[in-house]
Design brief:
0% strand, mainly alpha, elongated, single chain, 5 helices
């Protein structure tokens, strides 16, 4: 069976694996120490990881969601997991693992929206005209 989550993960890893690591100004080439001074400066790929990592503290809030986490904690976490140029692949992998674990723990609760309704089928009499 085709797994959309794995396909997305594989595509993202393939993409970041092919990005150059020799440019220190790009996220995939970063070789320094993280010291974000503003939440708005965090690249999207890092924000996705942070949202999954800090999910229990952020909750379901969407407005200024990452701002709820102090920059010091974000910088400490990123400096702990970052291994230098090319580490975006590791971050993507960790993001998908965290997301998978979260979704496995709490499966999506769906309800039958058509419960109690008679649903016409090709063979049923529902919807047929009484005039023949």
């Amino acid at each position: 069976m085709y797994n959309l989550a794995d396909a997305g993960k594989n595509s993202a890893i393939r993409y970041w694996s092919n990005q150059p690591t020799e440019y220190p100004w790009s996220i995939n080439g970063f070789a320094g120490t993280f010291a974000y001074s503003d939440h708005r400066l965090i690249p999207e790929i890092i924000t996705e990881f942070l949202l999954e990592h800090f999910r229990s503290r952020i909750g379901e809030a969407r407005k200024n969601h990452i701002s709820a986490i102090p920059l010091e904690e974000i910088n400490d976490l990123m400096n702990e997991v970052w291994e230098g140029p090319g580490s975006v692949v590791k971050i993507v992998d960790m993001t998908y693992k965290l997301r998978h674990n979260r979704l496995e723990e709490a499966p999506i609760d769906t309800k039958d929206v058509m419960k109690g309704y008679e649903i016409p089928t090709f063979d049923s009499d529902i919807g047929k005209s009484s005039v023949d």
